[in-house]
Amino acid sequence: MANKFSITFYGGTGSVTGANFLLETEEGGEKHRVLIDCGLEQSGRICPPENFAPFAYDPRSIEALFVTHGHLDHVGRIGKLVKDGFTGKIYSTPPTKGIAELIMLDSLGVMEKERRGTDLPPLYEPADVEQAMKQWQTFGYHDVLRLGNLQAVFRDAGHILGSAMIEFTLAGKKILFTGDIGNSPMPLLPDTEKITDIDYLLMESVYGDRNHEKRSERSEIMKGIIKDTMQAGGTLMIPAFSVERTQELLFEIENMMEHSEIPLVPVFVDSPLAIQVTEVYKKYNDYFKKDVAATVRESDGAIFKFPQLQFTKTTEESKAITHSGARKIVIAGSGMSNGGRILHHEKANLPDPHSTLLLAGYQVAGTLGRIIQDGAKHVRIMGENVAVRAKVAVVTGYSGHKDSDHLVEFVEDTAGTVKKVFVAMGEPKSSLFLVQRLRDYVGVDAVAPVAGEKIEINL
Ligand SMILES: [Zn+2]
Mind telling me which residue stretches traverse the membrane in this protein (predicted)? Predict the structure, then answer.
């Protein structure tokens, strides 16, 4: 009997977001039908209308869903999948389950706001998240998960806490889905695992056409910005994403304070989601890289805990920050200033020439963060005209994704065995550029599938 598999690219093609792949396998007459990721498509809005369309497959026909990591563009439609009848198991690492639950519940609120004035039904409801959690089982890295003759193993992707590449083995051949792969070395996480024996590879390409500034330089830049702002007697505002970026910043700031490299000023984490996610990071600190995990153990688990650090959960606590003196560091969401508590701090401090706004993440066109980054001298925040006299600093070395050179290196490691590479999860120009580089420099058969395309492989 023929052994074969197919991958259908239902999402995450021609776009960074909306990862959703269907893997169908057949070996010796035994068939399996599993999904890899079920993410939200995003384009300026958190949840644009295309997410509400029915799935292109019957969710009831799916045996299991494998989740690479807890970001919204990889988990955001799981609630809908369950609501639409999916009753199979969901598999991920333990931190991914913890982060995914928080992200799914948190995005409900934002989606609700976006839905106002439209006739769209809720994409999913809290009960669907609760149901998803009941169907969810966790496995550690390298544990072998068996669905009959289809085997799966999670390998460390080094992108956010618990992030995994999923390696399937079928009829002796290995098929790897990378999810997002980290910009190693990362401050908290182990490096992306080296893979050397993969036959078929489906990979991300967010930065397929670009390289990052050096990671080593970014801490120095950060140190300089903190020192200058505190010397000037201003506030340092950092709009940050809740997962990984906030925890990385806290870890680095704590280190700088411990080594007296920056003044001991108050540090506020002013984001309910970031505070909850930080708890997941504390709980699963054995997923950090070895030296960080050892430091945590030596200090009795006191990571993300130093005298200057305050987590502000309530609105009252958040408002009180404004009156707590000028010299301080405020980390708040959202990362692109298109909502969240950072807006209150920007409104209060952007007019102050002694303060600084530090942009440490990619700012999508049209967001307030991008408008300020592009040099606007006046902006509208919550209906008010706000003058921008504060300094605006941009640090790009904080990306959580491998850049073009490192994506190529990643494939080179398995060039001896790989038969085909599917390049996905990137803007078209980025994916196509990477496809060309892989063909020219690594000499592998690489393609960038289009949305809805089904590729069949006989083994
Ligand atoms: Zn991600």
Answer: none
How far apart CA 69 and CA 88 sit, in angstroms, is 18
Q: How far apart, in whole angstroms, are the C-alpha atoms of residue 442 and residue 107?
A: 40
Tokens of 417: 């065995």
For residue 73, the CA-to-ligand 1 centroid distance in Å is 7
Sketch the domain layout of the chain as residue ranges.
4-210+400-458, 215-394
Q: What is the CA radius of gyration of the chain?
A: 22
Average pLDDT on 313-335 reads 92
CA distance linking residue 241 with residue 226, whole number of Å: 19
Alpha carbon of 71 to ligand 1 centroid (Å) = 5
pLDDT band with cut points at 50, 70 and 90 for residue 48: confident
Q: Class of 4-210+400-458 per CATH?
A: alpha beta
Check for a shared fold between 4-210+400-458 and 215-394: no
User: What would the two tokens of residue 389 be?
Assistant: 């006299």
CA of 134 to the centre of ligand 1 (A): 24
Residues whose Cβ atom is located within 5 A of ion ligand 1: 71, 180
CA atoms within 13 A on the CB side of 152: 28
Inter-residue contact 16 to 37 (CB < 8 Å): no
Q: pTM value?
A: 0.92
The pLDDT of residue 218: 83
Strand residue runs (E) in 57-213: 64-66, 89-92, 136-138, 144-147, 150-156, 164-170, 173-177, 200-203
pLDDT digits (tens, 9 = 90+) for 134-171: 999 999 999 999 999 999 999 999 999 999 999 999 99
How far is the centre of ligand 1, averaged over its atoms, from the C-alpha of 13 (Å)? 15
- Ordered DSSP codes for 306-360: -TTEEE--SHHHHHHHTTS-S-EEEEES-TTSSSSTHHHHHHHHTT-TT-EEEE-
Architecture category of domain 215-394 in CATH: 3-Layer(aba) Sandwich (3.40)
